[in-house]
TrEMBL record, chains A, B:
Active-site residues, as the UniProt record annotates them: K144, S219, S243
Organism whose genome encodes this protein: Bimuria novae-zelandiae CBS 107.79
Protein name: amidase
Keyword Hydrolase in annotation: yes
SUPFAM superfamilies: Amidase signature (AS) enzymes (SSF75304)
Residues reported to bind substrate: L193, S219, I240, G241, G242, S243
């Protein structure tokens, strides 16, 4: 018997030896990824110097390292750049190289890039310049690493997926390349892709350009930080709980979570690809508001629904949703939601919403009203359960397979919450019914308010310190409802934004969030708002905010 | 110890006695439902006589029992009726009563009604006639029993749900009532709602008006039979595998399975309401082709997406998809698919498709080509697994709870197929990925063909004998792909439609289907086709067929 056991053990080890190559230490895999990134950075010409002393606020550093022309290019609105390239004032090569240089600086400042693509990008501009005027949009675009580029590794921040190499481009990139765009930079994302910060065993932490003690947000956090430093003016992110919006808000740029099933998101690496109870979306982040509809319209003009039959064939409607009246004003009813009834936002968020409310009331044509949240705690319970209907099994297995340590927020989201448990199919159906009933009830609630668009917080505060972004309710709410939501910068955290002396915590989550804040800790962090519309009313959201922005002279800060 | 056991047993029986009322025999429940139905029939005035000798072909009987005016009304196109009621030539009371009378005759002939609503319907017409001209559409509409009407029982053919009474109308009925419609008849459906015939322990079998040895189809089979006998000119059905289309085809009327998420289907009783891997849809059956777009447009004009946020806000596009060219013809490329590569349709189906193909080739502007199916067997495997992701547990439990016997096709669909098994959440995700990959591949395949619309069989034959409709592939295919599919009558089974002497079975399913057929057994059965478009191209499908029908003088039979 003993011999038989021994025989089996021997057999087992032999098979293991034959079929499982020994696991490479995760540190070696991460090191290789970093070396590759550094090599691509080193190929940028002229080389970008190392930055020896990293300041709290990184936003001023590029001005000391780049040429006047590079600064002018990278701080231009994308619409201006496209126009100047089309008219021959700027070459697409010069524009691409300026962004490559600034992205390299951004990497050295906040650690936001997984790789640059100087050779491929500049080679492309050579061919582009020849027929630039026909194409019209040779804008450099940055992408999130999880989005497939043929021939480049795509690991989605999972160490175990380090050698996955897609053989074709994501659908969205095919369309953008056809439109003339130039791909030149890929950006970082967090372990699991499922939290609102960016840290991983590949690249460690992507910090906030405005205050390196704070997070850049996530999961499109590399993208947000790169845009915050103007290393990109237009980039692609993804969002299933706030992953476009939180990085946009934390870094003072625009971002749109579009209604699902409008933009093509086939061709990406992520866990749970078959789950459809809550749909992830792809969308733009930009330093410019007009670039947001330009991006969406470029995609929809290509009729992506012909190739991807899961999409709804709705073109971007360019006729005004709010026509200008005879008096020169637009008639818009805006709701302001100060909190979601679950976690109270920090002082600067309240200040900004109150200022907007007051000033909007004075804009001709605009009616502004306070919007009452409807059971956002229930929404959070439903969406949290549906995110990980397998109890997080796939994510946990992928993490375990590499042997690399869990990041604190991976633990928080996958292991410390009672809602994460393996569900049976009938349990998923029950939750789906609850989801739909909640969606119906919210539609009624919203209809009663009579508002066109809603202005609300993006989160319970500006960018927090790393490992503290534990409450997704302000963004996940609109994922559950599948409402389009635009992020727009408004202000920054100011010394006047002191703690509310009369604060009383509503619950543990609220108390935790309150404990994070002081105006000193959050100094200089951008303060943004979320502008939310009804499902499929993406155009309305963008148009309403463009009008508000113009009327109120937003943003109320020189550089956010 | 023995005493203790005895004590527990006693306790158990006591509790059982106290909390479980004895189960009512299912026969008593069914009897009550039939008595209720008969009482509502008896309230129709003047009374409809019993029909003592039931002929093989029921379609001529109404002519012997109804008045000339009633015949004229019930055999009119709904568009004509609406116009005549609007202009005051006909009262809505006369129209409603004519349909009530003919529906009562239909019930006595083919057993297709669960109840008539003479009092409520006629009371409504009294109030309607007063402001008829404003409303414009006081058309009597029949509904499938599973669709909620406030205050009426809704059992969805499950005995155990005999006492379910919704407290509000289905969304779709609210809109139709607002548009002036009159509800006057509810129709039968099969046990489980999940097969393409109509038989249940409530009402037994709904037979085919054209040949009572054949099935009326299902699950909207009561509806199909009622329309086949002109006891209704426009009715509402539902379809997750062919349940609108097969009854429409079997009874020689029009039916549309619209693209999902267009028409409001909230407010119905059915098992697995939270399942969304394969979406059921609601849609019209009618004796008239123009009434199909009228129905859809009436619903979409009410903007149902404002109340039901799961819907896509796409209005019915009335501008021609195929504009008429200078020469007076429309340019349409039509594919003809003769079989799905899995089960070969019977002779009359081939005959009709070949005739259409030949004649279409002669119509100016129309290009016609043979369309090759793409892996329809794979589609069938995927959809079959996704229908019952809980292994049919909910259906089986609902059946078991009543103690009533299983119908043969309930057994076939739930217990005799290897694809029906309880799946885990990750298994459902894997199948969902397969589903989406298949959808993508089919979109490519279809794009290569360059066709605008496809003409194909509705099933592997005309209406079969009861308990024989075992192959859903021809309709379920378009549920899996979520393509809009219109059913249109073309011909009937003729004595010339003899068995193909060179038939060789491709597989067991094919051999079984072949064994069912002879022109004698299927005598007089309507032969219809299915016209299929790309997702969200419902308008294109209807417009293309209207053109074909006009050019070819369809249908090629006096009464189908």
């Amino acid at each position: 018997m003993y011999l038989f056991h021994k025989y089996l053990l021997h057999k087992y080890l032999l098979l293991k030896y034959l079929f499982h190559k020994p696991r490479e230490p995760w540190q070696a895999i991460a090191k290789r990824a970093q070396d590759h990134r550094d090599a691509t950075l080193a190929a940028v010409q002229p080389p970008v110097p190392d930055i020896l002393e990293l300041p709290l606020d990184s936003t001023l550093i590029p001005k000391t390292l780049l040429t006047q022309e590079e600064l002018q290019i990278t701080e231009s609105d994308p619409m201006t750049l496209i126009q100047k390239m089309s008219s021959g004032v700027l070459s697409s090569e010069a524009v691409t190289n300026a962004f490559l240089r600034r992205a390299a600086v951004a990497q050295k400042l906040v650690n936001c890039v997984t790789e640059l693509m100087p050779e491929a990008a500049l080679w492309r501009t050579v061919s582009l310049d020849a027929y630039l005027k026909e194409h019209g949009k040779p804008l450099p675009i940055s992408t999130k690493e999880m989005i497939h580029i043929a021939g480049l590794t795509c690991n989605a921040a999972f160490i175990v997926w380090h050698d996955r190499v897609p053989d074709k481009n994501a659908h969205i990139l095919e369309i953008l390349l056809d439109a003339g765009c130039v791909l030149y930079a890929r950006t970082t994302q967090p372990q699991t892709l499922m939290y609102l910060e960016t840290s991983s065993n590949y690249y460690r932490i992507t910090v906030n350009p405005f205050n390196r003690n704070l997070t850049s947000g996530g999961s499109s956090g590399g993208k947000g930080a790169l845009l915050g430093l103007r290393g990109s003016s237009l980039g692609i992110g993804t969002d299933i709980g706030g992953s476009i919006r939180v990085p946009a808000a934390n870094n003072g740029v625009y971002g749109l979570r579009p209604t699902s099933k409008c933009l093509p998101n086939q061709g990406m690496t992520a866990p749970m690809p078959g789950a459809e109870h809550i749909l992830g979306v792809i969308g733009p982040l930009s330093t410019s508001l007009p670039a947001i509809p330009l991006f969406v319209k470029t995609l929809l003009d290509a009729k992506p629904w012909l190739r991807d039959p899961s999409l709804v064939p709705l073109p971007w409607n360019t006729s005004p949703r709010f026509p200008v009246a005879a008096a020169g004003s637009k008639t818009i009813k805006i709701g302001v939601m100060y909190h979601d009834g679950v976690v109270q936002p920090h002082t600067p968020i309240y200040r900004v919403l109150q200022n907007l409310h007051t000033k909007l009331a004075d804009v001709p044509g605009i009616e502004v009203t306070t919007f009452t949240p409807y059971k956002h705690d229930e929404a959070w319970d439903i969406i949290y359960s549906l995110y990980f209907a397998d109890g997080g099994a796939e994510e946990k297995a992928a993490l375990a397979a590499s042997g690399a340590p869990w990041r604190p927020l991976s633990k928080f989201i996958l292991s410390e919450n009672l809602n994460v448990k393996p569900l049976s199919v009938p349990e998923v159906w029950d939750l789906t019914i609850k989801r739909d009933e909640y969606r119906n009830a919210y539609a009624r609630h919203r209809a009663v308010s009579g508002i066109d668009v809603l202005i609300c917080p993006v989160g319970p505060g500006a960018a927090p310190k790393v490992d503290c972004a534990r409450y997704w309710g302000y963004t996940a709410q609109w994922n559950l409802l599948d409402y389009p939501a635009l992020i727009a910068p408004v202000s920054k955290v100011l010394p006047i934004d002191i703690l509310d002396p009369e604060f009383v915590a509503w619950n543990d989550q609220d108390a935790y969030n309150h404990s994070l804040y002081s105006p000193e800790k959050y100094a200089n962090a951008p303060v943004s708002v979320q502008v939310v519309g009804r499902r499929f009313e993406d155009e309305k959201v963008v148009e309403a905010w463009a009008y508000v922005q113009e009327k109120l002279g937003l943003p109320w800060a020189e550089y956010v």
